[in-house]
Specification:
This protein has four helices and eight strands, in the order H-H-E-E-E-E-E-E-E-E-H-H. It has about 180 residues and is an alpha+beta fold. The strands form two sheets. The chain has a four-stranded antiparallel beta sheet with strand order 1-8-3-6. A hairpin with a 3-residue loop joins strand 4 and strand 5. The longest helix is centred in the C-terminal third of the chain and has 34 residues. It is elongated, with a radius of gyration of 21 Å.
Length: about 180
């Protein structure tokens, strides 16, 4: 069962009065996932915002890799086949107190990554349109929430870009992308 105090685990809710969190609590549900179960997949409709209550979640981006398979038969016949393989790339591991699915709050219609439980996990979920209507009803609270959310997104994106650039330099020995 979700309690009001659970919301205070998440910095984005820290400055929202308890009386306002009642509406969130009443409209949220708790979901449980086992290891390797997806909370959502990349390109699913971005309808919910989630908060990690217990467990661990990997955010993954799936990219399509192509490889050539060669089959040689009787030394004369060579069969070449191109295969597409979807490969997940783990962007980040989330822990208790992290929000996920924020694509639903920033105007994206689809999740830009997948979220998979690494171990037994509990999350709360709230429909993004319901959360937005609660925040719209009290613009001061809506501003505080969205300000915290944008700060969180900024920190995560900067961290991911830093990791990507470091990996690029290590892989290709250059600091030029162009």
């Amino acid at each position: 069962m979700l309690e009001i105090q659970d919301f205070y685990t998440f910095p984005v809710f820290a400055n929202i009065p308890q009386s306002k969190l009642v509406a969130l609590k009443d409209r949220s549900t708790v979901q449980e996932f086992g290891p390797e179960e997806f909370i959502f997949k990349q390109n699913d409709a971005a309808d919910f915002l989630y908060g990690l209550l217990e467990g661990e979640i990997e955010l993954q981006v799936v990219f399509r890799d192509k490889f050539l398979e060669t089959d040689i038969e009787y030394e004369e016949l060579v069969i070449n086949t191109m295969h597409n393989v979807d490969r997940p790339l783990v962007l980040e591991t989330l822990e208790k107190g992290d929000l996920l699915g924020w694509s639903s709050m920033v105007g994206n219609e689809r999740y830009t990554a997948a979220a998979m439980a690494v171990k037994p996990t509990r999350v709360f979920e709230i429909k993004a349109r319901i959360l937005r209507s609660i925040l719209d009803a009290d613009p001061d609270i809506g501003y505080v929430f969205m300000n915290h959310l944008s700060e969180m997104i900024n920190v995560r994106l900067n961290w991911q870009i830093e990791k990507l650039l470091k990996s690029w330099v290590e892989a290709f020995g250059t600091n030029r992308v162009v």
